[in-house]
Amino acid sequence: EAMSRTVVELFYDVVSPYSWLGFEVLCRYQHIWNIDLRFRPAFLGGIMQSTGNKPPAMLPKRAEYLLKDIKRMAKYYQVPVTVPEDVFQRILGKNTLGAMRFITATDMTQPKYLETLSREFWLRFWSQHEDISQVESILSVAEKAGLSSELTQKVLEMISSPAVKNRLKETTEEAIKYGAFGMPAVVAHVNGKPHLFFGSDRLELLASIIGECVSNNTSN
Fold first, then answer.
1. Closest to 179 in 3D by CA, of 7, 1, 9
2. Distance (Å, rounded) from C-alpha 117 to C-alpha 78?
3. Can you give the pLDDT at residue 86?
4. What pLDDT score was predicted for residue 213?
5. How many domains does the chain contain in total?
6. Domain annotation covers residue 1
7. Which residue range(s) make up the domain with 79?
8. Phi–psi pair at 86, nearest 5 degrees
9. Residue 209: its pLDDT value, please?
10. Could you tell me if residue 218 is inside a domain?
11. Which of 20-29, 70-79, 170-179, 203-212 is modeled with the greatest confidence?
């Protein structure tokens, strides 16, 4: 009998380059590890506000390090994140609420597009350095992700609905309840307990916790 797979939730926002790195690595491992990967689009702005966290770039030395760090990780994980010089103005100056609502509405209607759609938003914002806050750019991303124009229209109409706004808000609050203060927030559910991992550089720890849970189960 197949062992039950460990549920791993990934809370992410496409404004976050580290979320993209974590997302791609988890996407690669979802069929190798014994996990049931669940994408949980949330709103980073809401998490920051609620927990009093400040963007790391507010600290100049940390900003300097981040630029190098993202470059190294992008190369190591083979994810095409590139960091423009004005990266922090970009992040702070752009609102991804519309994009995250679009992703949320897609999740509510056609979740099979969630992975591709999220990736296309990251590609546009973090690889091509294009805008993702305008409706035209959202339409272009949806088309690249393979959504039909009917589906895209439907999703676009849902964006301003209370159902979508509430769903995004609830997902964001759920991440906070698990202890998230930034993104990506990865939550592995092992033996009925949630384990929170922050960032895209804790995946070995995640693997080890999943591994332990698998080997413990075999001895029962």
1. 9
2. 19
3. 73
4. 38
5. 1
6. no
7. 6-210
8. -90, 30
9. 72
10. no
11. 170-179
Q: Is the pLDDT assigned to residue 13 strictly greater than 90?
A: yes
Per the domain annotation, does 195 fall within a domain?
yes
pLDDT of amino acid 144: 97
**Residue 70: Cβ-neighbour burial (10 angstroms; 0-12, 13-18, 19+):** buried
Check if 16 is active-site: yes
User: For residue 59, what is the domain's CATH number?
Assistant: 3.40.30.10
Percent of the chain residues past pLDDT 90, beyond the cut: 52
Q: Name the band, by pLDDT with cuts 50, 70 and 90, for residue 3.
A: low
Among candidate residues 4, 16, 149, 200, the one labeled active-site is: 16
Please give the span between the terminal C-alpha atoms of the chain, in angstroms, as a whole number.
14
The answer to whether residue 219 is domain-embedded is no
Q: Is 208 exposed, middle or buried (0-12, 13-18, 19+ CB in 10 A)?
A: exposed
**Both tokens assigned to 153:** 């229209």
User: What is the SS3 string spanning the chain?
Assistant: CCCCCEEEEEEECCCCHHHHHHHHHHHHHCCCCCEEEEEEECCHHHHHHHHCCCCHHHCHHHHHHHHHHHHHHHHHHCCCCCCCCCHHHHHHHCCCHHHHHHHHHHHHHCHHHHHHHHHHHHHHHHHCCCCCCCHHHHHHHHHHCCCCHHHHHHHHHHCCCHHHHHHHHHHHHHHHHCCCCCCCEEEEEECCEEEEEECCCCHHHHHHHHHHHHHHHHHC
Spatial distance between the Cα atoms of 131 and 7, rounded to a whole number of angstroms: 33
Q: pLDDT tens digits, residue range 158-168?
A: 999 999 999 99
